[in-house]
UniProtKB/TrEMBL annotation:
This is Protein rogdi homolog. InterPro entries: RAVE2/Rogdi (IPR028241). It holds the Pfam family Rogdi_lz. Belongs to the rogdi family. It is found in: Cytoplasmic vesicle, Secretory vesicle, Synaptic vesicle. One of its GO terms (cellular component) is synaptic vesicle.
Amino acid sequence: QEASHRFALPTSGSGGAVKQENFVLSTSGTDQVKGVMTLQGDALCQADVNLKMPRNNQLLHFAFREDKQWKLQQIQDARNHVNQAIYLLMNRDVNYQFKTGLEVLKLMDAVMLQLSRARNRLTTPATLTLPEIASSGLTKMFTPALPPDILVNFYINLNKLCLTVYQLHVMQPTTTKNFKPAGGSVLHNPGAMFEFGSQRYEVSHVHKVECVVPWLNDALVFFTVSLQLCQQLKDKISVFSSYWNYRPY
């Protein structure tokens, strides 16, 4: 229940809308990328990014269009899984009596599966290929439009909101480099190559900035505690079952 409450954030005012929270994304020691993100539940409703190009120190600025917001599927999925765990526990009559220890064990297994899936959605970001990032709807979110040599990706990693910016350069047909397209990854390194729109690109620079989202941290702690409680109940039932089945000669 406590984990579930973290995903249904407290409202501000009486309008009933989930409150907006602002986060500054940056890394110490470098100012290549700075971002200010506004998170509203499972949606990034505003993003403001400054990027300093290393070639010429040109400063680029781009922000979400006012009519756009980006859903963070990881948060959405985690919330759905924890709500499913609660449903499994609560969908019986208040006077229901469990008949056997095995019945409880099966219920705990089902609940633990949902809790594990909820936690894994936050701890395991999706692996994407660079063409998948390039063709993502995220690239259409910004004004002014992103330059063709810039890719961005947002994701959740544990308790952090992460922004990765890839700077690209076009690989000329006359290049002597062997073209080897990169596979799927959470974070691609400089030198990764890919083909998109009949053009070949190579990643020249990668910038990752992040910030901690406190309520995601709380949710992860509650997932761990919940799983421990489920396991303790299973252990107790196993002990009592073995005692109950014991028949001395």
